[in-house]
Write a structure and sequence with these properties.
single chain; about 120 residues; mainly alpha
């Protein structure tokens, strides 16, 4: 029963995270790569908050980290955004986007671990 509830919490979090990801994408439609950068920053911040405040292996951890953040953040879209920029000849924009993404997402996790709720 414990495993089943973790799967259900993960699925619910994933559904909500995916819907939220779609919403952010629609807000920034055709503005490559801002939507991806925003969701990855916010998701990294949320993961940091969960690391600080939620015991790993609990249902709420599975809901938030594995489910919501897994559905909300997107490494695959980040990768395809970079490839698209490179194919369009925007090499420096692609490099800047990669560096910016890494720096702000790691900083967001670090910031999140400072937030006690």
């Amino acid at each position: 029963m414990y495993m089943l509830s973790n799967f259900l919490f993960t699925a619910l979090g994933g559904a909500i995270g995916s819907a939220a990801r779609l919403g952010v994408g629609l807000l920034f439609l055709h503005k490559l790569p801002f939507a991806t950068l925003i969701v990855n920053f916010l998701g990294s911040l949320v993961i940091g908050v969960f690391i600080r405040n939620v015991e790993q292996g609990t249902s709420i951890y599975y809901f938030g980290v594995v489910g919501f953040c897994g559905g909300f953040t997107t490494f695959s879209t980040f990768s395809s955004d970079v490839l698209k920029l490179l194919r369009e000849g925007n090499t420096w924009t692609a490099v800047g986007y990669m560096i910016l993404s890494l720096v702000i997402c790691i900083a967001a996790v670090a910031l999140g671990t400072k937030i006690k709720i």
